[in-house]
Design goal:
This protein is an alpha/beta fold. The protein has 3 domains: 77 residues, Arc Repressor Mutant, subunit A (Orthogonal Bundle); 96 residues, D-Maltodextrin-Binding Protein, domain 2, CATH 3.40.190.10; 101 residues, D-Maltodextrin-Binding Protein, domain 2. The protein contains 9 helices and 10 strands. The strands form 2 sheets. The protein has a 5-stranded mixed β-sheet with strand order 2-1-3-10-4, sandwiched between helices. The protein has a 5-stranded mixed β-sheet with strand order 7-6-8-5-9, with helices on both faces.
């Protein structure tokens, strides 16, 4: 199992053998023994052929389970070892959730579980989905998916409603609650195409047969707030209840009329049917027990 994992990490028999302090033939022998036991071909053996990925389709299917198997074996070895090495859980998450939820959660988790380190990688929602499905090194995904892949399971964490943010002199601020119809003549700043946030907003306008005036696009909420503050337009965003997103900014907030836009649901994604390592399960359970709203 270790030979297969390292072959995928290093990309070649030679590099993997060097890392494991084996001869190339010794590494091949381990892989062939595993193939014989499973009855499938796990890696490409043609010499001289350059490939972007050394594992076959069956090898890629086995890889996540091989990693989980090795992690669980290490956990058994470490069970009675007070000086056991720190374990790592690789989590892919959206920038928004890292900034306004996960940084604090990870800080608290590290205090509670000092031998488990959480490695965060910032991705878009679509990239979180793709990374979790294709990269076995990533154990968990944290995102607000618009649609959930059939290969993944979703564990709900929290939801956020939408609010209008506008420059302080905007006439829209005279309203206690804002309707989408009030916004169609305003320069609107939206999330980039393909994002969950944009899909929610566009669907909401379409259902009311309204066509918004999209002035600009931005990759994240912080950038949108800066654009609104500069007077470049108004926007509709899901705001974390802590107020951290707009704190210190020269903008005003107004709630939207309820149920115009579907709430943003944020949660944790795992590969369907995969048993998590003890470290990954501990972090997942810790997140779901924390109230971040």
């Amino acid at each position: 199992m270790v030979a297969l994992i390292e072959l995928d990490r290093q990309g070649s028999i030679r590099a993997a053998a060097n890392v494991l302090h084996l001869s190339e033939q010794g590494l091949r022998n381990r892989l062939i023994a595993l193939e014989t036991r499973l009855g499938v071909e796990l890696y490409h053996k043609q010499r001289g052929v350059r490939r972007s990925a050394p594992l076959t389709e069956d090898g890629r299917r086995l890889l996540p389970r091989a990693i989980a198997f090795v992690e669980r074996a290490a956990e058994l070895t470490d069970l009675f070892d007070d000086g056991a090495a720190t374990r790592e859980v690789h989590v892919a998450a959206s920038q928004y959730l890292i900034a306004y939820a996960l940084i604090e959660v990870v800080r608290r988790f590290h205090a509670a579980e000092p031998k488990i380190r959480i490695r965060l990688s910032a991705r878009t929602e679509q990239e979180v989905d793709e990374a979790l499905r294709t990269d076995p090194q990533i154990t968990l995904g944290v995102a607000a998916p618009y649609e959930i892949s059939l290969e993944l399971e979703y564990r709900h964490w929290f939801s956020m409603d939408w609010s209008l943010i506008a420059p302080r002199r905007s006439s829209l601020l005279q309203k206690d609650r804002v309707r989408l119809a009030d916004l169609i003549d305003e320069p609107l700043i939206l999330y980039e195409r393909g994002s969950t946030g944009r899909a929610h907003i566009v669907d909401a306008f379409r259902k009311q047969r309204l066509t918004p005036h999209v002035e600009m696009e931005a990759t994240n909420t912080d950038l949108i707030v800066r654009m609104v503050e500069a007077g470049l337009g108004i926007s509709i965003v899901p705001l974390h209840p802590s107020g951290a997103v707009t704190r210190g900014r020269q903008v005003e907030i107004r709630p939207l009329v309820k149920r115009q836009i579907r709430s943003i649901d944020s949660g944790i994604l795992v590969r369907k049917g995969e048993r998590l390592s003890e470290a990954s399960q501990k972090f997942l359970d810790f997140c779901l027990a924390v109230d971040v709203t």
